[in-house]
Amino acid sequence: MTEEVVIIGGGIGGIYVLRNLLAKKDAVKDGLHLALIKREKSGWVSTCGLPFALRGWYEIDRTEINKPQFFLDQGVDFRTESEVTKINVGGNSVTLKTGEVLKYDYLVIATGRKPAVPAIVEKTKLEGVYTFNDEDDARKIEAAMNSEGVKNAFVYGHGIGGIQIASAFSARGLKTTVFGRPPSLIPTRLDPDMGDMLKEWMEKKGVRFILDRKKGITGIKGDGGRVKSVVIGEEEIPADIVVISMGKRPNVSLAKEAGIEIGVSRGIMVDSAMHVKKGRRYINNVYSVGDCVEVIDEITHRPRLNQAASTAVVQAKVVTDNIFSDIRGQPGMYSSYEPSLAPTAIDFAGLLMGSVGVTSEAVARAGLKTISGKATKLTKARYFPGAKPLTLKLIFDAYTKKLIGAQMLGEATVAERVNELAVAIYAGITAEEIRNMERCYDPSLALLIDVTIDAAEEAMGITAVY
Q: Which stretches within 146-287 are classed as H helix?
């Protein structure tokens, strides 16, 4: 009998489950039928590419990697502009908004995230006020940026999404104000000293920041149905376009209504095989992946969210492996998703930010003691063209001296370092081992004594003399 797999959601998690299943489809003896249901009318869109489209690097249309027809041609029941309204876990079925019921042997919940919106914004009906969550939002923001007379922009949110939008506004020549809470930028990924460096860079690009815990948006004013200003405390800030980017909440309402357990971080609870939990047991034929899922932090061992495309891709591999193991009657061959280190690398107006592991605040909340070291150095020999400074902060467990976190800001070699230091954390590398580790050297590519060595030595209390 043909195995039926239903995937709810067409973001990176759902799409990669679909892609992986398609690659192995012919290996299923009795056949495999795949259905994917998504609200949007597009196929596979790279949402991570949207901020750069808004910066003018390319057209938004280029972020659609595959159109729906690509999957339809491969026999997938690929349903766009469709919606699941109910999951019946006991009956192995989902109900669509049209009333149609689809039966499944395996269900994958990849419902993603939704933007957090303050009450005062929800009440406003003014044109020019947007959230930024998908390609439809990106098109609205782009159209607004290109409208005649738009000169001032306001961003509510100082996390990754907010700074990406501010980078886009700055690149388009808009006078931009960012409002958020202190102490500094991107607190989930950067310590305040590193966040302040990013803030200084963005200020040089013409972005103004208001980071004040005591203030909030007290009003959004308009003229002729369009937004014209935002009131913060007693200050009225001109704003022809407003983007709310206060973070993304897991979209779990469908799962919650089905009785599936939601964790303390508001994401769907899963085991290491990505099975969801209902009541006291995990459901062997129901999985969840992506931004709607709660993960376990590798360092603190506490539940958290890690809403990253790279995380969703790994989770999709685990789900695919486990579905095929179950179909083949090999449950002992399960793959597992390991606790998360949340490796991150992002370009903000030409300054690259990298982060992996924990921040100092996160480990302090978990009751862990740390030591840290920070250093700034060029990425290649000072006499070589294109040498750029890089600031690196390393965080170590105070007792074991093992690396548990890294943060960096520079104009080059950030993504490579994030991946290198992620491996170092998983391997349990200590500060002394980093200090004494041999590294490659070529003046056109790397320094003889890398910034990593300097940061490790500072954490150890060693004064470097070179």
A: 160-171, 192-204, 253-257
CATH topology of domain 117-246: FAD/NAD(P)-binding domain (3.50.50)
Q: How far is the C-alpha of 164 from the C-alpha of 162, rounded, in Å?
A: 5
Q: What dotted CATH number matches 3-113+249-333?
A: 3.50.50.60
Contact 149, 228 (CB under 8 A): no
d(CA 319, CA 337): 9
> What ranges make up the beta strands (E) of 167-233?
175-180, 207-211, 217-223, 226-232
Nearest to 306 by CA among 287, 315, 324, 293: 293
Look up residue 337 and give its DSSP letter: P
Structure tokens at 71: 């999957």
Asked, colleague to colleague, whether 3-113+249-333 and 344-460 share their fold, the answer is no
Sorted by sequence, the CB contacts under 8 Å of residue 193 that are 6+ apart come out as 374, 393
Q: Which residues contact 46 (CB under 8 A, 6 or more apart)?
A: 12, 63, 64, 65
For the segment(s) 344-460, the CATH number from 3.20.20.70, 3.20.20.190, 3.40.50.300, 3.30.390.30 is: 3.30.390.30
In order along its 466 residues, the chain shows pLDDT tens digits of 788 999 999 999 999 999 999 998 877 777 899 999 999 999 999 999 999 999 999 999 999 999 999 999 999 999 999 999 999 999 999 999 999 999 999 999 999 999 888 887 777 888 999 999 999 999 999 999 999 889 999 999 999 999 999 999 999 999 999 999 888 999 999 999 999 999 999 999 999 999 987 777 888 999 888 999 999 988 999 999 999 998 889 999 999 999 999 999 999 999 999 999 999 999 999 999 999 999 999 999 999 999 999 999 999 999 999 999 888 877 666 789 999 999 999 999 999 999 999 999 999 999 999 999 999 999 999 999 889 999 999 999 999 999 999 999 999 999 999 999 999 999 999 999 999 999 999 999 999 999 999 999 999 998 765 5
Distance of CA 384 to the CA centre of its chain: 35
Is residue 384 classed exposed, middle or buried when 0-12, 13-18 and 19+ CB atoms within 10 A define those classes?
Answer: middle
> With 0-12 CB in 10 A as exposed, 13-18 as middle and 19+ as buried, what is 301?
exposed
262 close to 269: Cβ distance less than 8 angstroms: yes
Q: What are the residue boundaries of the structural domains of the chain, listed by start?
A: 3-113+249-333, 117-246, 344-460
CA distance 25 to 329: 16
Please, what is the end-to-end C-alpha distance for the chain in angstroms? 70
